[in-house]
Amino acid sequence: MALKYFFDSYAIIELEKGNPDYFKFKDEIITITVFNLAEIYWSFLNDVGKMADKLYESYKRCVVMIPDSVLKEAIKFRKNNKSKNLSYADCIGYMYALKNNLIFLTGDKEFKDLKNVEFVK
């Protein structure tokens, strides 16, 4: 199966919570950054406590390295979209998706109408 999606933290969290709107993505290859992994771990710590470590280990294998060029472009993108109050993790993931021909899967309304985004709430 070829890589198709970059999963925003929101998408992973909703998938784990059993949101039926994300069910169709359950067999897709998951791609995230270490920044998403940190957000996901934070959310799991708050919601499921001790299970968070198991989930962290499970998603750690999905982490990709971010080239410096993508990181810099992501921060410029965040600066250029300052009014949207986007997170660093989201901007980095979005830019990684663009540069790697992946669809940015998210439920974050700030990305809803942007290029290369699949918005699922």
Poorly predicted runs are none
- As a whole number of angstroms, the C-alpha radius of gyration is 14 Å
CATH superfamily: 5'-nuclease
Q: Structural class per helix/strand content?
A: mainly alpha
Q: Report the portion of residues in β strands.
A: 5-15%
- Relative helix content: 40-55%
Q: Briefly note the CATH topology name.
A: Rossmann fold
Rounded mean pLDDT is 95
Number of DSSP-assigned strands: 3
Number of helices: 5
Could you describe the 3D structure shown?
The chain is mainly α and 121 residues long. The protein has helices spanning 9-17, 34-48, 51-60, 68-80, 88-99; strands at 5-7, 103-106, 117-119. The chain is 49% helix and 8% strand. A three-stranded parallel β-sheet has the order 1-2-3. Helix 1 (9-17) packs parallel to helix 2 (34-48) and helix 4 (68-80) packs across helix 5 (88-99). It is globular and about 40 Å long.
